[in-house]
Amino acid sequence: xxxxxxxxxxxxxxxxxxxxxxxxxxxxxxxxxxxxxxxxxxxxxxxxxxxxxxxxxxxxxxxxxxxxxxxxxxxxxxxxxxxxxxxxxxxxxxxxxxxxxxxxxxxxxxxxxxxxxxxxxxxxxxxxxxxxxxxxxxxxxxxxxxxxxxxxxxxxxxxxxxxxxxxxxxxxxxxxxxxxxxxxxxxxxxxxxxxxxxxxxxxxxxxxxxxxxxxxxxxxxxxxxxxxxxxxxxxxxxxxxxxxxxxxxxxxxxxxxxxxxxxxxxxxxxxxxxxxxxxxxxxxxxxxxxxxxxxxxxxxxxxxxxxxxxxxxxxxxxxxxxxxxxxxxxxxxxxxxxxxxxxxxxxxxxxxxxxxxxxxxxxxxxxxxxxxxxxxxxxxxxxxxxxxxxxxxxxxxxxxxxxxxxxxxxxxxxxxxxxxxxxxxxxxxxxxxxxxxxxxxxxxxxxxxxxxxxxxxxxxxxxxxxxxxxxxxxxxxxxxxxxxxxxxxxxxxxxxxxxxxxxxxxxxxxxxxxxxxxxxxxxxxxxxxxxxxxxxxxxxxxxxxxxxxxxxxxxxxxxxxxxxxxxxxxxxxxxxxxxxxxxxxxxxxxxxxxxxxxxxxxxxxxxxxxxxxxxxxxxxxxxxxxxxxxxxxxxxxxxxxxxxxxxxxxxxxxxxx
Length: 657
Hints:
Among the domains are: about 255-345, 2-Layer Sandwich (Signal recognition particle alu RNA binding heterodimer, srp9/1), CATH 3.30.720; about 360-430, 2-Layer Sandwich (Signal recognition particle alu RNA binding heterodimer, srp9/1); about 465-655, Alpha-Beta Complex (Phosphoenolpyruvate Carboxykinase, domain 3). Mean pLDDT is about 80; it is low at about 240-260 and about 450-455. The strands form five sheets. A six-stranded antiparallel sheet has the order 9-8-13-12-11-10, covered by helices on one side. Helix content is about 25%, strand content about 20%. It starts with a helix and ends with a strand. It is an alpha+beta fold. The relative contact order is 0.08.
């Protein structure tokens, strides 16, 4: 894309002001040298992928849909090459620079010729990339801020485990405590909407993570602006436009939406078999829903089942009793209320019990709440709406064959011509404590019955004598077998420095049968092959290996560096690219690599904001199956559905001396 001089000038202004400015500040700065109208400036910002726009809360400016307090953030696609540090890359479209030089202080900075990594942005390779992206007007400090807020691999991620828990521990739910390689800081502070300020139970001070940040040798100016950098990073990740070509209003989620995303109840714990235990990022509770009120800390309501029953009825906008809960504002008197929940049923395997089935209702002209899809003239079902809502809860979607649309933001269905409007509500299907116990016992009973039966779908090469229908077994392969040699060849094809110590095959009948079922579903949905591939994922936290073998990969329950192409589990085509934790603190004298069967199906280019793949086209609810870094020649895949994965082999290896 060819950029005009105004575009390049705005980028430089933003980067010289630590990466972003409010619209009013930007307009004032530009007006010192150029006379530009609000309409022209807005069109310049809207029409370029180098800007992410975060809407403000003030009134709109004349001739512009922006507000004076809208934040304009400099955005770029360039990154530091992840293969440059291992000298595996000779030419690519990313920068070949010393990571610590970008952060501010390389210990060899005073004698940069002794550092084995480049400090020269004007080298032949780097200058080509910079000129190609038309950033040649930026000096080193300006380029530094641009990279820090766009490249997720440069600075540590915020610890999700720290941000969950009941507040009794200063480390939240993080079991690594002082040795954690992620930031222990309030995630709501980073998203810009922590309501509790100085009373917040999570840290609002980066100096509390000074020991970790000291390892990064950050420039003093970077340290002073660290909160702004992280907030800008968050806004860029949350931008709804996949390529950032046009800025779409980014609405900060309400507290109830945030809790739906970050406080998910673990279904395995309800079934009393969560293998991740205290490392699980999800909430451990005995029911698939949990109602809490905030009084300094989050406290459980004593009548949680009664509240849930009333909430499930779309007629109710409040609960009963002397202290009613307003279900629309999620407030009880002056106190905030939240509802924690298991994952939405549309995101999981149909046989996956105790997920939350969300139902969508419309208040018709007679004042009756009718579920979508329950009548013949309703062309959209609750499941259809739930799928679209989870993909974009600010969307406005067409309903049926007429002129009606449903706005998720307003929760209203309206007719474009008559302007008539009907209120819409999203409520879960009620399940009692007794229902939960019956479902759990039913699953256990089925497993007991299956334990004496041999599945017909077991691969021929599995060891039938080591087969179990409950849990899994690890069978060590003989180095003389063809199976071992096949895995060895795939591994050593790219991992030249790896020395295999042993290879185990994972035989997990339950996961295998679900994986086969998912393969058939993808074939039916796409009318094509499911595109099954063998892909690598290195695990640096060895304490969760058994949990993965039993329960599968579970994004959020183990560390990954960044979410550049989506919030899912990352797998690499080459073993050498499969370490997705750049800040590993593993002290083991061996390494672990999983080789998994992965159903990649139909895929598209990923984006940091994706927590599930987008729809294949705008007219259907059919999503892609996975995301990639490059559609034409992908080197990594992002998988959002855990049962599209079967963790088949565990490779134990060490580096060659």
